[in-house]
Design brief:
It is a single chain. β4, α3 and β5 form a beta-alpha-beta unit. The chain contains seven helices and seven strands, in the order βααβββαβαβααβα. The chain has a seven-stranded mixed β-sheet with strand order 1-2-3-4-5-7-6, with helices on both faces. With 175 residues, it is of the alpha+beta class. The termini are far apart. Helices cover 35% and strands 25% of the residues. 30% of the residues are buried. It has one domain: Aminopeptidase (3-Layer(aba) Sandwich), CATH 3.40.630.30. Bound molecules: coenzyme A. Coenzyme A (COA) binds next to β4, α3, β5 and α4.
Length: 175
């Protein structure tokens, strides 16, 4: 599809509602896919998003003709950087927006990158694999989620972690 002017920019306080709207639109993909007890609507509440920002998640967005079409967060967690909350508007998926945002965030950090997503979100796993990320082993996943994320135990159980080539190049398995 032909695209209008598009650019990637850091999201600010004025984008709060737009970021939340994109997350909640994009998260519709999970409905009926992730375990029912993990689904809630809205998927991202105001307080929850505010807490994520306070916890250091920095959102970047791809704007098409001025309107955000996709967002992706990055969170510095010391030894690693986490990609958090990657969402593209349902109507704009599979047009390269997610890939552009991911490439942008990769250029912004020299650290190994980790991504956690629902195990059932096979499309998301494929998306990251296409960009060179690999699933970590189940026991390593549990360790990483406990070390770097603050998510409920049930979400740990039902999630997978993918890591960038840089992560595998350095040996983190010793902890
Ligand atoms: C995952 C997501 C951010 C990717 O963004 P995108 O703009 O759609 O992705 P791109 O167009 O850059 O890349 C597309 C690639 O991703 C994978 N992919 C994305 N959606 C897919 C789908 N529905 N089915 C299968 N593969 C899919 C494929 O590898 C695809 O490549 P292909 O089109 O050559 O087969 C977006 O699809 C999305 O918001 N999904 C719903 C929410 C979500 O799962 N977020 C991830 C949370 S970590």
């Amino acid at each position: 599809m032909a695209r209008g002017e598009h650019k990637i920019r850091r999201c600010g306080a004025e984008d709060f509602d737009a970021v939340r709207a994109i997350i909640n639109d994009g998260a519709q993909a999970y409905r009926g896919v992730i375990p029912a007890d993990c689904w809630h609507e809205p998927y991202m509440g105001r307080d929850e998003l505010a807490a994520e920002l306070a916890d250091g998640v920095e959102f970047w967005g791809l704007a098409e003709d001025g309107a955000l079409a996709g967002v992706m967060g990055i969170q510095d967690r010391g030894a690693v950087a986490l990609i958090r909350h990657a969402y593209v508007r349902t109507a704009r998926r599979r047009g390269g927006i997610g890939g552009e945002l991911l490439a942008h965030l990769e250029r912004a950090t020299a650290k190994p990158i980790l991504i956690g997503t629902w195990a059932a979100a096979s499309w998301a796993v494929r998306f990251y694999e296409k960009h060179g990320y690999r699933l970590v082993a189940p026991e390593e996943k549990d360790r990483l989620l406990a070390a770097y994320w603050r998510i409920p135990a049930r979400q740990v159980e039902t999630s997978v972690v993918l890591a960038s080539p840089r992560y595998f190049a350095q040996d983190h398995r010793g902890g």
